[in-house]
Design a protein that fits this description.
The protein is of the alpha/beta class. Helix content is about 40%, strand content about 15%. The chain has 11 helices and 8 strands. Strand 2, helix 2 and strand 3 form a beta-alpha-beta unit. The two termini are about 15 Å apart.
């Protein structure tokens, strides 16, 4: 990557709020995570606790407490609210009622599959329902879903139904397993991925770092891909439009090559 003026770095998927879910345990750990993010070059962090472990009122209250401490510590970050929602049939109703939160108050909503081992037969219907209600779904950490690892072109259905695809930064380095690493790199190469995020849970293991992943993407797929991923994340937090991905179906459906396996391990 070039060393000119750095782009705005936005992390739309983190578990940084204290004592809410399986992320930061307390304020001290939240601050440690935010310091890691700031040092890494992130300027905007969206807190997205698991919806099944909290509610919107708790999220807003925890965010306000953390923001107050951040101001005292003079951390150079903007913190925004959100939730990682499961793609259940009642999600639209909850979003409209305000008991589920979008990302930074926008139309964008971060969703995950309720069961990572099974592909929902009604996935397209659920995504289209969100779109019809005025929301824009982002499907979280897709490389960790077993059906996607076995059949990456399944995501064509989700993309056709209007979802953006998010991949975790640490998956590019094998921290979520070799299968997740391989499919994450393939999805980026195919042009299926719109957003890279940390899904951070602590200051060290699953830390809020994006820069190493962006550097790897630049080395493997070109800096234009990095610019697009960073611009998309910025558009999301500003309620902007993101061009629908147009992935190469042949890349998604092709057998894994020896070069892909080597690249997954050594990163060139």
């Amino acid at each position: 990557m070039h060393h000119g003026e750095p782009p705005i770095q936005v992390d739309i998927h983190t578990h940084v709020l204290p004592g809410i879910d399986d992320g930061a345990r307390d304020i001290d750990q939240s601050l440690a995570m935010l310091r890691v993010a700031a040092t890494d070059g992130t300027q905007i962090v969206v807190a997205t606790p698991h919806a099944r472990r909290t509610d919107a009122a708790q999220v807003v209250a925890a965010l306000e407490r953390l923001q107050a401490v951040m101001e005292r510590e003079r951390l150079p970050l903007r913190l925004a609210s959100g939730m990682e929602e499961q793609l259940w049939p009642d999600l639209v109703d909850r979003l409209l009622a305000g008991t589920a939160l979008t990302l930074s108050g926008t139309r964008w909503v971060l969703v995950e599959l309720p069961d990572w081992t099974a592909w929902p037969s009604d996935l397209a219907d659920r995504l289209l329902e969100l779109r019809a209600a005025g929301f824009r779904p982002i499907l979280a950490h897709v490389e960790r879903y077993v059906p996607v690892q076995h059949q990456p072109d399944r995501l064509l259905e989700a993309i056709a139904a209007g979802a953006l695809i998010q991949v975790n930064a640490d998956s590019l380095f094998g921290q979520n397993g070799y299968a997740a690493q391989q499919v994450a790199l393939r999805l980026i190469r195919a042009g299926a991925v719109s957003v890279l995020a940390s899904d951070a849970h602590s200051p060290d293991w699953r830390a809020p770092r994006l820069r190493p992943a962006f550097e790897r993407v630049a080395a493997l797929f070109g800096e234009e891909t990095v610019i697009r991923l960073q611009a998309n994340a910025m558009a999301v937090v500003h309620d902007g439009d993101v061009a629908p991905p147009r992935p190469d179906p042949d890349v998604l459906s092709a057998p894994t090559t020896l070069l892909e396996r080597v690249r997954a391990w050594v990163g060139f």
